[in-house]
Amino acid sequence: MELPFAESYKIKMVEPIRKSTREERERWIKKANYNLFNLKSNQVFIDLLTDSGTGAMSDRQWASMMLGDESYAGASSYYNLKQAIKNILGFDYFLPTHQGRAAENVLFSALVSEGNVVPGNTHFDTTKGHIEFRKASAIDCTIDEAFDTTVLHPFKGNIDLNKLEAVYLKYPKEQIPCTIVTVTCNSSGGQPVSMENLREVYELSKKYGIRVIFDSARFAENAYFIKTREEGYADKTIKDIVAEMYTYADGMTMSSKKDAIVNMGGFIALREEELFKKAAQFNIIYEGYITYGGMSGRDMNALAQGLDEGTEFDYLETRIKQVAYLGQKLKEFGVPVQEPFGGHAIFVDAKRFLPHLPVEQYVAQTLAIELYKEAGVRGVEIGTLLADRDPVTRENRYPKLELLRLAIPRRVYTNNHMDVIAVALKNVYDRREEIKMGYQIVNEAPILRHFTVELAPCEEAMSC
Ligand SMILES: *Cc1c(COP(=O)(O)O)cnc(C)c1O
């Protein structure tokens, strides 16, 4: 008999989590105005709000923290991290920042100006925010297959080269400071980019004299998908694949809270000395001196160790198989999920789950609330609430997809937790016809409303 799969680590420290009753949860979610961001973490049994900064550090990472050097300038922790970035990603220049969006802020301050265009696969919302804040625009050149949940394409994060070249032909190169490739592509469901596509994007960009930057939060998960899905890479190590990926980039921004398995941190890495010097000035203004940026020495040490562990195959296999385990269970229960499964999360298709609810009643949010009430599992709506209103008409923007995202923290939960999540969703699915109404907004902020929005069930509200 073939041996079953098991995690590539054992547990040395545990943190208790609290089960609650349905009655308690109904009270708490009402008090939270039906916004899951307003729940206290101890009101949540299994927290799938995000995989960002929620991972469990290893014994080696904690040990490296004790060796952190808190010198203001030239700390050994800085040099440890510099060496790890050189060894694993191949860049000579780097700047530490406090998280991913800070890296974007610093780099784009040096790079992006009014009227610029920045093409790429679907830009992450903070990336897009930092581009648009500078009165520049982000142009989405992702392949069309990415937007069809029924198409099984192995690399839905790929850039359409024709769309990209059209941008290069339309705008003068002075107006295009860089192309950004997000690996894996978060906004299209954690979908990877193939090595072939990375290579072709780089070659095309060099032909037009355009710089390529990787938005790298989940670069290691991307490398895992290259190894397991792309021809010619099965026998290569993750570190070899990562090294090749970055030969097709001129620089990168990183949210270390994802694939580097730390709770806070980020960085910029570059090949060009000139651009590094320019960005360093902004780093000093916004983040801190260039040898610590927004990070303490112990955190840089843990990050250096995390980069090494995060690019080990055994760890990645454990992680990505756990995400797929949950996806497969849900599929077996008939729950509609997006395929192929992404690297960091499972996306439940709420419109197919609750087809009788109108989109005006926030279908994915309704499902998120039902799942919380069922088992204390906290997911997040990726739908109309997140999409905000049109800035001009102030009408709701209804995205094509209403998704409930279940993001899996790294090395935190066991497959028993995955079983609880799957059965909880199955129970909601089995009684889906009893969910007759959704929610309406009582209070909202003008932008990024999903964090603070207040909702009420439709039967209690005035005009659903
Ligand atoms: C999380 C993320 C960011 C922003 O990073 P923070 O650390 O949350 O500031 C940028 N890009 C991508 C692709 C991300 O997933």
From TrEMBL:
<dbReference type="Pfam" id="PF01212">
    <property type="entry name" value="Beta_elim_lyase"/>
</dbReference>
<dbReference type="GO" id="GO:0016830">
    <property type="term" value="F:carbon-carbon lyase activity"/>
</dbReference>
<dbReference type="InterPro" id="IPR015422">
    <property type="entry name" value="PyrdxlP-dep_Trfase_small"/>
</dbReference>
<dbReference type="GO" id="GO:0009072">
    <property type="term" value="P:aromatic amino acid metabolic process"/>
</dbReference>
<keyword id="KW-0663">Pyridoxal phosphate</keyword>
<dbReference type="InterPro" id="IPR015421">
    <property type="entry name" value="PyrdxlP-dep_Trfase_major"/>
</dbReference>
<dbReference type="InterPro" id="IPR015424">
    <property type="entry name" value="PyrdxlP-dep_Trfase"/>
</dbReference>
<protein>
    <submittedName>
        <fullName>Tryptophanase</fullName>
    </submittedName>
</protein>
<dbReference type="InterPro" id="IPR001597">
    <property type="entry name" value="ArAA_b-elim_lyase/Thr_aldolase"/>
</dbReference>
<dbReference type="InterPro" id="IPR011166">
    <property type="entry name" value="Beta-eliminating_lyase"/>
</dbReference>
<feature type="modified residue" description="N6-(pyridoxal phosphate)lysine">
    <location>
        <position position="258"/>
    </location>
</feature>
<keyword id="KW-0456">Lyase</keyword>
<comment type="similarity">
    <text>Belongs to the beta-eliminating lyase family.</text>
</comment>
<feature type="domain" description="Aromatic amino acid beta-eliminating lyase/threonine aldolase">
    <location>
        <begin position="47"/>
        <end position="422"/>
    </location>
</feature>
